[in-house]
Amino acid sequence: MTPIMLELLFRSLWETILMTGASGIISLVAGLPLGLALVATSRGGIAEKPWLNSVLGAIVNGFRSVPFIILLVALIPLTRLIVGTALGTWAAIVPLAIAATPYYARIAEVSLREVDRGLIDAVRAMGGNRWTIIREVLVPEALPGIIAGFTVTLVTLVGASAMAGAIGAGGLGDLAIRYGYQRFETTVMIAVVIVLIILVCGIQWLGDRLVARLDHK
Amino acid sequence: MNSVVSAPVSVALPQAEEIVRLTDVKRRFGTTPALDGVSLTVRKGEIVGIIGRSGAGKSTLIRCLNGLEQADSGEIHIEGRNITGLSEKELQPLRRRIGMIFQHFNLLSAKTVEENVALPLKIEGLSKAERLKRAAELLDLVGLSDKAKAYPSSLSGGQKQRVGIARALAARPALLLSDEATSALDPETTRSILVLLKDINRKLGLTILLITHEMEVVRSVADRVAVIDAGRIVEEGQVWSVFADPQAPITQSLLSGIRPQLPDTIAARLSPVSGAEQILSIDMAGPAAQGTLFADLSQALPQSFRLVHGGIDHIQDQPVARFFIAVPTRDAALPEQVQNFLKARGARVEVLGYDTNHA
C-alpha cells in the first residue's frame, strides 16, 4: 500500500470516528430523554399519559421504518438548513443522528422498563418526586443497560456511516467501495475491513469494561 | 367475648395519640373489592400486626396508608391529617413522616449501603455531611457499620433488610410500615429482624404497622392484631387474647400451625355421638392458665381424665394454654362433672367428640 493510500486510510478512519462519535453523542443526549419519556408516559409509568405515549411511539416507529439511505436523501433540506451544506462529513452527521436517536431511544426504553417497580415504590414512599425517581432510580439502576445499548448504537452507526459516502461524507465504508470494490484494489478492501474490525472491537471492549464497572447487581 | 380473655393488658395507653385512623376505607380493582370497608386505629408506640392470606387485601391496605394506592372511599388519617384525595405532590411531604420496609428490600443496587440509607435525607434536602452522619448513626443502630461502603448485592437477605430498616428510619418517621418484611427470610433471620423491630419500637417509641401472612411474626412482636379476609377486618384485639380465643374461622385456620391441635390419629376416629372417652379441648389465658388446674381436677375427681395433647405458650408475657383431654364415659355423669369443674375455674371447654378406639 502506498503512503498516499495509507494517508487516505487514516483520513477515512478519522471521518468514520467523527461521524460515529458526533451522531452517537447526539443520539445519546436526545435518545435517552426520549426513552425516559416513552417509559414514563406508558401505562403504569410515573407520568402516565397514554396519548402522548402513542404519539411518541408512532414518531419513533416512523423514523425507524425508513431505510437509512432514503432518510439520508429525504433529510437533505434539513441538513442544508443546519450545516449549510448537504455534502461532506459534517452533513452526514445530521441524518445519522436522526436515524440513531429513535433507535437508541428504544434500546434505552427497554433498559429503563426493566428497573424493578419496587425500587420506584421505595423512593415514592420516601417522599421522592418524579425527578428524584428519574435521577436516583431509573437512570442509575438502568445505567449498565443504557451504556451497553449505547455501545450497540455506536457499532450500528459505524455500519450506517458507510452509506453516508453517497453524499460525499467519506469514511471507511466509502473508501472500501470506491477503491476496494470499484477499482479492484483488494489490498485497500482488506485493510479497510481490518481497520473496521479493530474499531468495532475497540468500541465493544470499552463499552463492556464500562458496564462491568458500573454494574453492582 | 369469653370471660377468660377479658383481662385487660394495655401495651399502648388508650389515650395515646392516634397515628393512623382508617374509617370505612374501600378500594376495588375492576370488580373485585380489595378493601371492603376497613376501619382501624393505631396509636402511638403500638406495634399492630395485620394478618391475612395472600389476596386478602393487606398489601393494598398498607399501600393506602402512604398513598402508594388511593382509596376509592372512606377516610385515612395520619397523625390527625386526612390524606384521602391528596395529590401526589401533597402526599410527598407526608410520606417523609412514614418509613416503609419491603419484602424484597427494594434497595438501590447502584448505590452503596450508606447512600441507600441517606437517600431519604437527600430528598429532604440535607447537606451531604449531615446525611452521612445520620446514615452512620442508623447503620450503627442496625449493626451494619462495617458495610457502609458495600453495595447491597454483597449483603445477605437479613443484612439487606437491616439496611432497609435503617433507610426507613433515616428521616425520623412517626410510623413504620412493614410490608411482609420477613417473608423472604429464613426463620432464624426472621427472628433477628423481628427482635430489631421490637427493639426500635421500645428505644424510639416508634409506631409500627406490619402486614404478614405468618402468625409467628404477629406472635413475637405485635401488641395488637387485626385479621383481614376478603378486604374486611374480621377480628381484632390484643395478640394474646386473639390467640387464646380466635373467633373467626380464618383466624382459627391461620393459627392452626402455631396452636396445639388435636392429633390427626385421634381426630380421624372421633365419633360425634358415643365412645369410650369424651375428648375435650380446654382453652385458658391469663391468670387462669397459671394455676394448678389439672392437679386440682385429679384431686377433686380422681381418675377422671387423661391428658392427650397441649401446652402453655407465653404471648406478650401472658400465659395462653390449650389442652386436649380424654374423659372416660364409663360413669355417665363424669364428663359433665369434669366440664363443670373446668368452667368454674375459668376455662373455655369444648366437646370435640368421642374416641371410639381407646379402651
What descriptive keywords fit this protein?
heterodimer; A: 217 residues; MetI-like fold; 0% strand; B: 359 residues; alpha/beta; Rossmann fold; Alpha-Beta Plaits; 6-stranded mixed beta sheet; 5-stranded antiparallel beta sheet; 12 helices; disordered N terminus
Strand order of the largest sheet of chain B: 6-7-8-3-9-10
Q: Please bin the fraction of helical residues of chain A.
A: over 70%
**Category by helix and strand content of chain A:** mainly alpha
Helicity range of the residues of chain B? 25-40%
- What profile does the largest beta sheet of chain B have? 6 strands, mixed
- Assign the CATH architecture of the largest domain in chain B: 3-Layer(aba) Sandwich
Beta percentage of chain B is: 25-35%
Strand content of chain A: under 5%
Order of helices and strands of chain A: HHHHHHHHH
Spell out the CATH superfamily of chain A.
MetI-like
Which sequence of SSEs, written as H and E, runs from N to C of chain B?
Answer: EEEHEEHEHHHEHEHEEHHHEEHEEHE
Sheet with the most strands, sense and barrel status of chain A: none
Question: Number of folding domains of chain B?
Answer: 2
Would you count the extended β strands of chain A for me?
0
Structural features, described:
The complex is a heterodimer of chains A (217) and B (359). Chain A is mainly alpha-helical. Chain A has a single domain, classed as MetI-like (MetI-like fold), CATH 1.10.3720.10. Chain A contains 9 helices and no strands. The longest helix of chain A has 39 residues. Chain A is elongated and about 65 Å long. The N and C termini of chain A lie far apart (49 Å). Chain B is an alpha/beta fold. Chain B has 2 domains: 178 residues, P-loop containing nucleotide triphosphate hydrolases (Rossmann fold); 92 residues, 2-Layer Sandwich (Alpha-Beta Plaits), CATH 3.30.70.260. Helices cover 33% and strands 30% of the residues of chain B. In chain B, the strands form 3 sheets. In chain B, strands 6-7-8-3-9-10 form a 6-stranded mixed sheet, sandwiched between helices. In chain B, α3 packs across α4 and α5 runs parallel beside α6. Chain B is elongated and about 80 Å long. The two termini of chain B are 37 Å apart. Classes of the chains: A mainly alpha (217), B alpha/beta (359). Chains A and B meet through α6 and α7 of A and α2, β6 and α3 of B.
